[in-house]
Amino acid sequence: MESIDHGRDHVSIEITSEFEPLVSSMKNTMETVVSGRCIGRVNEAIRKENEKTYIPDKISIGPLHHGKEALKATEDQKWRYLYALLNRKPSLEKTLHNCVQALKELEHRARLCYDENISLSSDAFIQMMLVDGGFIIELFLKNVIKGLKRRNDPIFSTPGLLFDLRNMIPGDHRIHREKFSLEGNHLLDLIRHCFLPTFPRVKVKQDGTQTGLQSAKKLKESGIRFKKAKTENLLDIKFVDGVLEIPPIQVHQYTESLLRNLIAFEQCPCDNTQHISSYVILMKSLICSEKDVKFLKRRQILCNFDASEKDVSKLFERLSKTVNLRYLKDFCFDGLCEQVNEYKRNNWPRMWRVRKKGRSQNVPKIYLIAILLLLIVTFVGTLFSILSFFLRY
Predict the structure, then answer these.
(1) What is the DSSP letter of 52?
(2) How far apart (Å, rounded) are the C-alpha atoms in residues 124 and 110?
(3) How far apart are CA 316 and CA 322, in angstroms?
(4) Domain of life here (predicted)?
(5) Which residue has the higher pLDDT, 95 or 61?
(6) Phi, psi of 226 (to 5 degrees)
(7) Higher local confidence (pLDDT), 23 or 57
(8) What SS3 class is residue 123?
(9) Nearest-angstrom CA–CA distance, 291 and 366
(10) Which residues pair with 3 in a beta bridge?
(11) CB under 8 Å to 251, separation ≥6 — which residues?
(12) Cβ count near 43 (within 10 Å)
């Protein structure tokens, strides 16, 4: 029996056990139809290029890598974190019962999030969700509240086990706080929200696909100026009055792994935007050689990397190969590229006049140098003639 009280109105809805199987079946069917399968393994062709990038080597979350021998070392630590989280309530057993009951109701929806059938039993699946979820929550709490940390905690005391997330996710920390309040399908989706642009996309005026620009050095030669954007949000790239403003990107040891996983996620059917894929294609078009890297580094657009200019150039080349243009349904910077190319077309006559004027101004200097050299040669020749005359007599 279920009661609903709206002020004076009192409505009773009776759900008998006779209809419970049908109601449950219809509920599951509706959830199956409307659900988006947003978690899956990376495409095999992409995964072969750098398989280590897509496989966890310390801690796994979720069923896809659950139970692997190489990851068992941290499983006990997950249980310790879950115990610390749930034991703060008066009754551990009651709290655990409530968590299991709540997850049981979500199990069907959770399984539908995966592209493949999960072979875990119902109990094993619910246990995995609770242990992994409790671990993540307790990890965030310990990271923020210093009093919860323990000296012998291997997660925080083992070098390299927990890297600094602030270095992993470049951008404005204030924007991250706002975006982390949004609902995400999973951790990678939550991180992806931190990269999304904060201002509207530039609309395309003419039909046609533009997937990139000339190299940074060539654009500079054509009159396009480059400037480090004030915002640190990675995708907030804009073009104003001949100036291409690009937020700085910190190239470090996690850059390739992070961008590769975000690109792989954007190729899933459930995702409708391809911002990171578009960003990689745009940056690859700007970086064609080590000279482009050096130029963007001088402009403080590429920063904080200990690799060589060649390595950075190769990095974006490798990343661009993971973005199969056949799957790039929507290049998010097409309007921006159109703006830049239109400015180049309109600016070219003026640039030609400036260069021509510069050449004409340089002509007299060349003549002066030639005349000066001629005078010096003539003077030296005359001097030697006079000296030879006196030495003869």
Answers:
(1) G
(2) 13
(3) 10
(4) Eukaryota
(5) 95
(6) -115, 140
(7) 23
(8) helix
(9) 30
(10) 12
(11) 302, 303, 304, 305, 307, 312, 315
(12) 15
pLDDT of residue 126: 93
The encoded tokens of residue 20 equal 């419970």
- Indicate if the pLDDT at residue 340 is higher than 90: yes
- Side-chain half-sphere exposure of 312, counting CA atoms within 13 A: 25
Separation between Cα atoms, residue 28 and residue 366, nearest integer Å? 84
52/143 Cα distance (integer angstroms): 27
Instruction: Give residue 108's identity as a one-letter amino acid code.
Output: H
Q: 78: closest CA among 127, 143, 8, 22?
A: 127
Tell me the sheet residues that pair with 227. Answer: 245
Q: Specify whether the CB–CB gap between 305 and 312 falls below 8 A.
A: yes
**Interacting residues of 137 by C-beta distance below 8 A, sequence separation 6+:** 85
Cα(214)–Cα(156) distance, integer angstroms: 45
Long-range contacts of 378-382 (CB under 8 A, 24+ apart): none
| Position 6, amino acid | H
Residue 287 near residue 316 (C-beta atoms within 8 A): yes
Q: How far apart are CA 190 and CA 258, in angstroms?
A: 13
Q: How far is CA 192 from the centre of its chain?
A: 6
Q: How many CB atoms lie under 10 A from the CB of residue 250?
A: 16
| Cα→Cα distances 140→59, 99, 174, 292, Å | 15, 19, 17, 39
Give the number of other CB atoms < 10 A from CB of residue 312.
Answer: 22
Could you give the percent of the chain with pLDDT greater than 90?
A: 27
How far is residue 246's CA from residue 230's CA, in Å, rounded to a whole number? 9
Q: Provide the token pair at 35.
A: 């659900």
Q: Which one is predicted more confidently, 151 or 338? A: 338
pTM of the model: 0.70
CB 265 within 8 A of CB 192: yes
